Amino acid sequence: MLESFAKDPLTKGLPESLVLQLKRFITSLTEEGYSDQTALAKLRLLTKLGQWLGRNRLSITNLDEQLVGAFLKHRKRVQLGNAKTLQQFLDHLRKSGVVPDREMAPDQSPLAGLVNRYERRLAKGTSRSARRSALPQRPWRQT
User: Most buried of the four, 5, 69, 123, 143, by CB within 10 Å?
Assistant: First the structure.
């Protein structure tokens, strides 16, 4: 399958940078033991993603979970496994340095607030005990 990848009509008209990443992704799938049939199904979905990005004047460097969600909403027919394939490709792009890592929003939940206060309190207690241990021992005080 990889021998004819560059000449594949599926990848025709896609940006060279995307075709290169698709080839690397499909190679990694093959190395992980995916069948050629499964890899081809994933390639078909990803080329449709590439065409959709092109129509919307976006590149793969813009790809994130939000765009993946928009692409899935745009599709008339979403098959089981499409979201997983897109997440796999996004993870591949992140590992390759093409797409930046996902920025995690700070946790603003009440539980996170309690944990933060608890950690600050522990840090204060630790610094007090560290100061106490730096003081000379009083021989008249029993420990």
Answer: 5
